[in-house]
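On clarity, I found the account of how folds are encoded harder to follow than it need be. Since the whole study asks how a given chain folds, the encoding of that fold should be made plain. For illustration, here is how one protein appears when written out as sequence plus structure tokens:

:::
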Amino acid sequence: MNATGRKRRTPDFKVVIPARYSSQRLPGKPLLDLAGRPLIQRVHRNAAHSGADEVIVATDDRRIAECVGNFGGEVCLTSTAHACGSDRVAEVAALRGWPDDQVVVNVQGDEPFLAPDDIAMAAAHLADNTDAACATLAVKQTSAVARKDRNKVKVVCDAAGFALYFSRSAIPAGEGEWLCHLGIYAYRHADLKRFSGLAPCELERREGLEQLRMLWHGDRIRVAIATLPQYLGIDTEEDLAEAATLIGR
């Protein structure tokens, strides 16, 4: 339901999964085995069941392209010069000639626990918030250990559910519940083009978080709260092993 109590309508949307080989923390991450399947295949499978019109893996690496082709996925080879995943997604949208009002959902290639309904939720929240340039998801957490993990991105929001700031540091200060940001963004193609054309800002460089470029330039990001029975983004070998255990339950 939205704020008016009406059932939320999911718009027509396309999913692009940016995937690169040269991850600093876990090289070759999209191709790593996760409980019998490559990580990228698990992400793609969830996206394929989300109701998206198209699901495309965007990569600059032919090893990833070959892997995706082997399991029947669609691939778009992109430039090696992109600074972030959203820039890679923007290239795909431009190459495909999508209209300015097309909803495009960027599902990061290391998010195997983003379920189909979560992906559709991001698109629906963008449609519900016409004043937002982007919609994303977060999940409520209480772990004090995870809160200190710089691989876990934290977000704080205002009373209306719009992002105030994202950080790798433990925010907000003090003990208690916090929001862990999930690796998904929904945007209209026009906003994606404009965002991709902006130079990275100082906060983005310092935090290593592309979404801070949007906030820096005054764009609003709507944050919806996902209710996930289990959540784990894959950043380390330990994450991969834990994810395999969760999938095997």
User: Anything to note?
Assistant: The longest helix spans residues 116-128. The chain has nine helices and eleven strands.
